[in-house]
Specification:
- The protein has 264 residues and is of the alpha/beta class.
- The chain contains 11 helices and 8 strands.
- The chain has an 8-stranded parallel barrel with strand order 1-2-3-4-5-6-7-8, surrounded by 5 helices.
- Helix 1 links the parallel strand 1 and strand 2.
- Helix 1 crosses helix 2 and helix 7 runs parallel beside helix 8.
- The protein is globular, with a radius of gyration of 17 Å.
- The relative contact order is 0.16.
- The structure holds 2-phosphoglycolic acid.
- The site of 2-phosphoglycolic acid has 13 residues, from strand 8.
């Protein structure tokens, strides 16, 4: 089997890691990555306060560019009276290339709506920051058989909006809410079904040929023990990893698994 899409291993650190811890982590990770070739795309998403340390450290290392830096969230305006918010311009200045938008913790704990998320996606695109758009159902929605309805509701308008901007460089992460941070991942079949559905949705808005190139990640209790089972599925192109990404050893292991299952 030839995989046509480059795998992604993305670490969402959430509200963890000080600046000192970030530099320590990255020096360990970079050192261990030296033994690998044909790396997948590796992206870390530190908290805002550690982005500058991460960027400075990686810019000064010979092979630092193999790790990309993303933000976990962003406001849609460039500046203004938005206490506590961070703008796309501020992120660009720090070398941020990606931004997670619509993470379930933003939707459920901080009340972000689909409308707000679309505004943020539009803004990210206009500022040339690649959106990693997260979607996923709650346990109740799954049990009521509404998984596909939820994915469609969360994604359709965002896809139409990107189509209208003629923008195609996005990443989607399927993250069932019930699997995030619980230690109970979706089964590879459940994740594949959802990712296949998402790919078809992308195809219906853009075109099926383009949909074959879009990267769709699975997220929710990914670990070195289960990662391979996900990435051998045809529609899953990597992982958005929370808890396991906090350990440089485990994150390295995930990258190693991606290398072993990438080019086949
Ligand atoms: P988890 O988090 O790996 O700890 O389940 C995933 C995420 O929220 O992106």
């Amino acid at each position: 089997m030839t995989r046509r899409r480059t795998l992604i291993v993305a670490g969402n650190w959430k509200m963890n890691m000080t600046c000192a811890e970030t530099v320590n982590y990255l020096s360990k990770l970079l050192y261990s990555l030296e033994i690998l070739n044909n790396l997948p795309e590796v992206i870390i998403f530190p908290p805002f306060t550690a982005i500058r340390s991460a960027h400075t450290f990686l810019s000064n290392e010979k092979n630092g560019s193999i790790i990309k830096i993303g933000a976990q969230n962003m406001h849609w305006e460039e500046k203004g009276a938005f206490t506590g918010e961070i703008s796309p311009l501020m992120l660009k200045e720090l070398g941020v290339t990606h931004v997670i938008l619509g993470h379930s913790e933003r939707r459920h704990i901080f009340g972000e709506t689909d409308e707000v998320i679309i505004r943020k996606i539009d803004s990210a695109i206009r500022h040339e920051i690649k959106p990693v758009i997260c979607v996923g159902e709650t346990l109740e929605e799954r049990e009521e058989g509404k998984t596909e309805d939820v994915l469609e509701r969360q994604l359709l308008e965002a896809l139409r909006s990107m189509k209208s901007l003629d923008y195609r460089d996005f990443i989607i992460a399927y993250e069932p809410v019930w699997a995030i941070g619980t230690g109970v991942s979706a089964s590879p079949e459940q994740a594949e079904d959802a990712c296949r559905f998402i790919r078809a949705l992308v195809g219906s808005v853009f075109d099926p040929e383009f949909a074959k190139n879009v990267r769709i990640l699975y997220g929710g209790s990914v670990s070195p023990e289960n990662f391979r089972e996900f990435i051998i599925e045809p529609d899953i192109d990597g992982g958005l990893v929370g808890t396991a990404s906090l350990s440089p050893e485990k994150f390295f292991e995930l990258i190693r698994i991606a290398v072993a299952n990438g080019e086949q």
